[in-house]
Design a protein that fits this description.
Length: 484
């Protein structure tokens, strides 16, 4: 996605000059830079990595570099000289290094759509403050009470989009579901016209994020910017409504009613609010984006797995039917029900290992840093790969084999920083519990209500950078196990 920045000649020239400047900075330490070649300025090895990403062969791309240069090497990626690292020690270093020095700054085109105050752009105290505010709602103790609400949203979704259908495209449908769950749970926007109006703007923003960043009429990027400009006033109205409601019902208001109310309710000791409206808006947008593709991809892969692996399907259905039997017909799931879905979560964890929705993480060095005996010069990028760590034979035996027993309680635990689908350290995903809740509740409803088969047995996907199935993972609904 970042590579597409090159398309405009002016941008290309600026990047070219900047990358030459960074290369010269690196020349300060001729003997301390990692081995490897930076290739052509700006372009470097970007096309090669993009090709590997599309083919879902990032681990092979890493392996090629390791074989050629050793465990740490340099390359030029997406306009920046980059130090490529891998493995649990490197993960620990990157994930836990001082966030003011190793930042997660995004390309300008991305922050133009996500907003300058989104969590990825923030570092140090501001990152801590905004993240703590988000986490105060997303933590398990608070989310627990919303299990039933998530389940109701899922039931409504299945009834509207799956029941009575002959064939469905799983990936786009589940994306709509994750959008609806976020709207309802995090923003307090229940089903209806308001939510329906938000969806197209949000979808244009998502497309804009992944598009060539040329801001000309009719480009996807400019549609993304326009969509943000239409979405922001709607979010401002929403914030005003929630602020008024909070003030009116000060006494009996539930501060955890939804994420926005929770963010508005967080105050400083002097009575002022902790987050500005701009921070709230940019982070509402971030949460929408961060929680949309990721969970839906995990669920899509699980739907595919259950259509092809009979033994896993049978064990999951046993576990889920046991839970269904303990409920009255139509009774919603509770958090306690979800805690019983231990095997289902082991399968989901193995899926996150083998098909990590996020397969690469970049950081930017704000000053010269030493790692593994080498210097990472100021301005350079650092790249690590979750997929590469998850496919390491020394950590996960027979890594290509799908084996949920790896996550059994008594199985040897993977060493720290070696199972990292949600990252680790101060920037570790704050949405884990929500992702888990959505995944388990959806799996329960799917396997207890429907059976399905793949229309195309070998429907493939490309990473763009998130996995995208060629036909949205087309499945044929075989039967409704019981009518609701
Ligand atoms: C299966 C689902 C998910 C996966 C695999 C996932 C993965 C990740 C990863 C790997 C990171 C860290 C990236 C880095 O260090 O560079 C991250 C960050 C983040 N995720 Fe998730 N995520 C998931 C679901 C969610 C959900 C449901 C939400 C929202 C409710 C969410 C919100 C965020 C936010 C706000 C950040 C930024 C944290 C920060 O910079 O401090 N994620 N996610």
């Amino acid at each position: 996605m970042e590579f597409e920045l090159f398309i405009t000649p002016l941008l290309f020239l600026m990047l070219f000059l900047f990358s030459i400047f960074l290369l010269f900075r690196g020349k300060k330490y001729p003997d301390r830079l990692p081995p490897g070649s930076l290739g052509l300025p700006v372009i470097g090895q970007s096309l090669d990595l993009l090709k590997a990403l599309k083919a879902d062969k990032v681990d092979k791309w890493f392996l090629k570099g390791i074989t050629k240069h050793g465990p740490i090497w340099k390359a030029s990626l997406f306009g920046y000289p980059t130090v490529v690292v891998h493995g649990p020690t490197a993960n620990k270093f990157i994930y836990t290094y001082d966030g003011n020095i190793l930042t997660s700054t995004q390309p300008p085109s991305i922050s133009r759509i996500m907003g300058p105050k989104n969590l990825f752009e923030l570092a140090g105290h501001d990152h801590k403050r905004v993240r703590a505010a988000l986490a105060s709602f997303l933590k398990l103790e608070v989310l627990k009470q919303y299990a039933t609400k998530v389940d109701q949203e899922i039931q409504h979704h299945l009834q509207t989009h799956w029941h009575g259908k002959h064939e469905v495209q799983v990936q786009p449908l589940i994306k709509t579901l994750t959008f609806n769950v976020i709207c309802s749970l995090l923003f307090g926007i229940e089903k209806g016209t308001k939510r329906d109006k938000l969806l197209p703007h949000f979808q244009h923003m998502m497309e804009g994020l992944l598009a060539i960043p040329i801001n000309l009429p009719f480009t996807q990027f400019s549609r993304g910017i326009i969509a943000r400009s239409k979405l922001v006033p709607m979010l401002i109205d929403l914030i005003c409504e929630k602020r008024e409601a909070l003030e009116e019902q000060k006494q009996e208001a539930n501060p955890h009613k939804d994420l926005i109310t929770s963010l508005l309710g967080i105050g400083n000791d002097d009575g002022s609010t902790n987050l500005s409206d701009e921070e709230i808006i940019d982070n509402i947008i971030l949460v929408m984006i961060a929680g949309y593709d990721t969970t839906s991809i995990l669920l899509t892969f699980l739907v595919r797995l259950l259509a092809t692996n009979e033994s896993i399907y049978t064990t999951i259905i046993c576990e889920q039917e046991e839970i269904a039997k303990s409920k009255a017909p139509g009774e919603a799931l509770t958090w306690e029900d979800l805690t019983k879905m231990k095997y289902t979560w082991r399968v989901a964890s193995e899926m996150l290992r083998i098909n990590s929705p996020v397969s690469l993480s970049f950081r930017r060095a704000m000053q010269d840093i030493e790692y593994g005996g080498f210097i990472i010069p100021k301005g350079w990028q650092v790249l690590l790969s979750q997929s590469m760590t998850h496919m390491n034979n020394d950590i996960f035996q027979d890594p290509t084999v799908f084996d949920p027993t790896r996550f059994e309680k008594h199985a040897p635990q993977p060493p720290p920083f070696s199972f990292v689908p949600f990252g680790a350290g101060p920037r570790m995903c704050p949405g884990i519990e929500l992702a888990k809740m959505e995944t388990l509740a959806m799996m329960h409803r799917l396997v207890t209500q429907l059976t399905w088969e793949l229309v195309k047995k070998d429907e493939s996907f490309k990473r763009n950078p998130m996995p995208e199935f060629d036909q949205g993972l087309l499945v044929r609904i075989k039967s409704n196990i019981y009518a609701i």
